Amino acid sequence: MELTDFTEFEPFNALRRQMGAEKLGFFELFDPAIHLTGEERSELENAGRLLPLEKVEVLGDKTLAIKNSRVLMYIPDESWHRSHRAYPSFHVALCETLEQCRQEDPKREYLVTTRIADDYQLLKIRPSGEVSVSEHGFVICKHCLHRLRYKNYDEYRNRRRGHSQKILSDFSLAEFFRLYKQYPLSFNAKRES
């Protein structure tokens, strides 16, 4: 069986000229505008990246993403936690806490990471600008679990309190990302407008 030499196939050559493609070439499916580069993946898996909320995509299921990877984020500003009497927690969804933060200060930066750990000893920024590691591990945001209805978690219903407390105390990022695939995201996944 002989294959057609498409460089000599006039209908394709006419189409190529019409498209303005002068040269034949090799096409790679990687697009850095929609795929995390190696450098970005490394940065997100290690120290993380400080970003405003507007640079983080909110997917249709309310989880957070950068390009083709779901991420988690937290507020590294220690003074914010004190002023709001909030326990340091990491976020996996656009919850009421993040919406409140966005209203208070749209330019606030969050530490965004793809790192999965059980002992989340993460960086925090003191009011003086000094960066340190948190003395206490961060925990999952209960508002995020409620927003996602993760394993039927319900923050407000008393009759489900025992079930919800168990979900909260047994939470595992590894299990979370088994249910919500972290990487790579399908580009057919709906993005929130």
Can you give keywords for this protein?
7 helices, five-stranded mixed beta sheet, three-stranded antiparallel beta sheet, alpha+beta, 29% helix
TL;DR?
The protein is of the alpha+beta class and 193 residues long. It has helices spanning 10-19, 38-45, 78-83, 96-104, 142-148, 161-169, 173-179, and strands at residues 49-52, 57-58, 64-66, 69-70, 72-74, 89-91, 109-113, 123-125, 131-133, 139-140. The strands form 3 sheets. Strands 1-7-5-6-10 form a 5-stranded mixed sheet.
Description:
The structure is a single chain. The protein is of the alpha+beta class and 193 residues long. The protein is 29% helix and 16% strand. It is built from seven helices and ten strands. Strands 1-7-5-6-10 form a five-stranded mixed β-sheet. A three-stranded antiparallel β-sheet has the order 2-3-4, with no helix packed on it. Strands 8-9 form a two-stranded antiparallel ribbon. Strand 3 and strand 4 (69-70) form a beta hairpin. The chain is elongated. The chain starts with 9 loop residues before the first helix and ends in a 14-residue tail after the last helix. The relative contact order is 0.16.
Helix content: 25-40%
Alpha-beta content class: alpha+beta
N- to C-terminal separation?
Answer: 50 Å
**Largest β-sheet summary:** 5 strands, mixed
